[in-house]
Amino acid sequence: VANNERTRLPRRKMAAEGDFLLRYRAVSNKLKRRFLRKPNVAEASEQFGQLAKELRQEECLQYAGFCNLAVARCEQTLFNAPGEALALTDAARLFLQAQKETQKLQCPGFEEHLQAATNCYSFAIKVYIELNQPVMAASLCLQLGNALKEMNKPAEASVPYQRAAELQSQVPIERLLSLGKVATCKIITRDYDGALAVFTEMQLLAQEKGLQVPGTCTPVGAFMDVIARCEVSRVLLLMLFQVRVLKPAVSSSLCTDCLLVPPSLASRFNSH
Length: 272
Known about the structure:
mainly alpha, 12 helices
C-alpha cells in the first residue's frame, strides 16, 4: 500500500503539470488581440491567480510562481501597480520555496529558482519605489537578504541589506539594524575591512540621529546600545588587523575610541 501511494504522488504531480500547461495556454490565448475584440485582462488575471492557488496546493511551486508572474503582467496592463507588486512578491516567495525544496533534495542545478526569485523581488522593489513607498521596498530587501543568508550566501545577502539601509534613510533605528546585518555578513565572509567601515558608519549615524539627553550629547535608549555594540566590535576588529593596513583616519579614530575602553578590556588589549 505504501509503495502504491508513493507511485501515485509523482503521477498526480505529472498530471497537474500537464493540466497546468493546457490551462495556462488557454488563458494566455484569451489575451491575444483579435479583430474588433478587446481582451478581458481582468478576467485573465483572476484565472491566472486561481490556477496559481491550485498549483500551490499541488506543491508545483515553480509553476505557481509563473502564474503569479502572469498575474503581475496583467495588473501592469491594467495600471494597477499595487496589484503588480503583490503578485511579484508572491511569485518571488514561491520561487524561493521551490529553491529550498531543491536544496533539501540535494539535486544538482543552476539555482534558476533563486535567480527567478531575486529578479521578482527586484521588480517588486522597483514598483514600490515608483509608488513612493520606501518602507515596503525596504521590507522586501530584508526578506531577500534573510533568504540568501539562510541559504548560506552571506556575500550575496549583504547587497539587499545595504539597499534596505539606503531606503530607510528616514527611519534611523531601522537603518542601523539593516547596517548591522550588513556588518554581520561581512564578518562571516571575512571582509573585516568592510565590516569595520560599516560599524564606523553605524556609530556616526547613531551619534548624529540618536535621541539625546537634554543639555548633553549623550544618546539614550536603543541608540546607546548600538553605539556600545559598534565600539566593542571596532575594538575586536582592530585586534584582527595590523596597524599598517589601516587607513590613517580610521586608525586615528580607533585609537581615540580605545581610550574610552574600560580598564579591564584595555589591559587585555595591551597584552596582545
